[in-house]
């Protein structure tokens, strides 16, 4: 009897898992309650994989040996409850990819903020050093699809808490935990502790051969660590104290100390600017040094790195007004980092699907730097309530085009218009990329 693998959800991770499962000889069936994108349908058809959309064949699903649940599907989903009640094992896509990755190494990067930037920078260093590597996970191609179609010696994986929720044996050779701030609480019964536990699962299967790179300046991480039994090699990084092993910044110098390798570099040479990016750069540098990459290659990559689309991305200067696309800021903390690096009067575009946001976290920065707020969402009450006594002008809009036009009207030469929504995008857009792209298109039309 073939192993029956049911895939719930047909996004990038679902389709990638289906392709890998099929390649490994599983009996694979993909079920999506919504519609499946044409490109993904084509991939499934080309691979000879059965699928359904707009419905779930419950009987067939509940006869599975194993279910791979897409990260977007919450536990409170009725079908997931039925699967759990029947004790059918539920795994995530990274678990399936891990099962078949062979002797390849995994660098798994997680945290509430800075994951994508750190993943991209780590990958850039690996590529610069000539490693046979791929960047996978939340940031692009599915990990499982990469394993199935083009296996590599090193996988740099951006990992979300949702993917970690359904691991069993997944083990990273190098685990990176950047920070933990309140995010996605709607998926964790509004209990911060549940979310913290989820993030720490990145090290639960690690052994004394592995490495754990983490931020020593993050109180949530340092409070949790003493409560855990850790079997891995800790490599902390800090901007507040020197560490014997790991990385730190003292004055304007970054120092990395891993085994025999010592790397020092001026932070003024970092391609990525801002305090939060100093942390991201240290984490990526330590991960690279742990892989045995020479310091010259680390320096070269860190100097020449280009930031990601939708993450503090310069769009254009229109009549002296600068437009920045930070659509990837889907939580309040990300917006805090964006505002922290602003040094011009700012018109801030906020709003979208609220995830239990506490806007008090950015109140001081808003007071100091923001001259006007443009809301871009279906329901903006919470934002208006939070800032009505701090910001003189708050305007409501319901599209990227209207938000850009309103922002431009309120700006003058020397100002910056910052799209850093602090919310998910699903009320008006397909995803944060779609939101960022519509923002950029509207700016180009000014």
From TrEMBL:
The keyword ATP-binding applies. Keywords: ATP-binding, Cell cycle, Cell division, Cell shape, Cell wall biogenesis/degradation, Cytoplasm, Ligase, Nucleotide-binding, Peptidoglycan synthesis. The keyword Nucleotide-binding applies. It is an enzyme of class 6 (ligase). ATP binds at residues 111-117. Pathway: Cell wall biogenesis; peptidoglycan biosynthesis. Residues 109-287 form the Mur ligase central domain. Cell wall formation. Catalyzes the addition of glutamate to the nucleotide precursor UDP-N-acetylmuramoyl-L-alanine (UMA). This is UDP-N-acetylmuramoylalanine--D-glutamate ligase. The lineage of its organism: Bacteria, Pseudomonadati, Bacteroidota, Chitinophagia, Chitinophagales.
């Amino acid at each position: 009897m073939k192993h029956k693998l049911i895939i719930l959800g047909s996004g990038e991770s679902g389709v990638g898992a289906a392709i890998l499962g099929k390649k490994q000889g599983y009996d694979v069936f993909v079920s999506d309650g919504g519609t499946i994108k044409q490109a993904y349908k084509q991939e499934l058809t080309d691979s000879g994989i059965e699928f359904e959309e707009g419905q779930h064949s419950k009987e067939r699903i509940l006869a599975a040996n194993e279910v791979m649940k897409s990260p977007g599907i919450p536990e409170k989903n009725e079908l997931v409850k039925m699967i759990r009640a029947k004790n059918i094992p539920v795994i995530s896509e990274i678990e399936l990819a891990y099962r078949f990755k062979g002797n390849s190494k995994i660098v798994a990067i997680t945290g509430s903020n800075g994951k994508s930037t750190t993943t991209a920078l780590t990958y850039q260093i690996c590529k610069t050093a000539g490693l046979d590597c791929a960047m996978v996970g939340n940031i692009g191609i599915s990990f499982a699809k990469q394993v199935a179609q083009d296996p590599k010696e090193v996988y740099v994986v951006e990992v979300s808490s949702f993917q970690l929720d359904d691991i069993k044996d997944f083990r990273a050779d190098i685990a990176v935990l950047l920070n933990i701030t309140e995010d996605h609480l709607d998926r964790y019964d509004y209990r911060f502790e549940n979310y913290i536990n989820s993030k720490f699962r990145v090290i639960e299967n690690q052994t004394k051969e592995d490495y754990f790179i983490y931020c020593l300046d993050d109180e949530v991480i340092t409070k949790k660590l003493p409560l855990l039994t850790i079997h891995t090699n800790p490599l902390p990084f800090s901007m507040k104290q020197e560490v014997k092993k790991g990385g730190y910044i003292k004055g304007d110098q970054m120092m990395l100390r891993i085994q025999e390798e010592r790397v020092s570099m001026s932070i003024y040479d970092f391609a990525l600017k801002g305090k939060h990016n100093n942390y991201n750069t240290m984490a990526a540098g330590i991960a690279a040094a742990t892989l045995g990459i020479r310091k010259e290659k680390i320096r070269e990559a860190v100097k020449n790195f280009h930031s990601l689309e939708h993450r503090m991305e310069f769009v254009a200067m229109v009549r002296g007004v600068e437009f920045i696309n930070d659509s990837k800021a889907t939580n309040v903390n990300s917006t805090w980092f964006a505002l922290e690096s602003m040094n011009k009067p700012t018109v801030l575009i906020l709003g979208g699907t609220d995830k239990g946001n506490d806007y008090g976290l950015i109140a001081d920065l808003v007071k100091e730097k923001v001259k006007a707020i443009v809301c871009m969402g279906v329901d903006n009450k919470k934002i208006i309530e939070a800032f009505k006594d701090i910001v003189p002008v708050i305007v409501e809009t319901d599209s990227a085009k209207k938000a850009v036009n309103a922002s431009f009207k309120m700006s003058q030469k020397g100002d910056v218009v910052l799209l850093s929504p602090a919310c998910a995008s699903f009320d008006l857009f397909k995803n944060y990329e779609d939101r960022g792209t519509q923002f950029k298109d509207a700016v180009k039309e000014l």
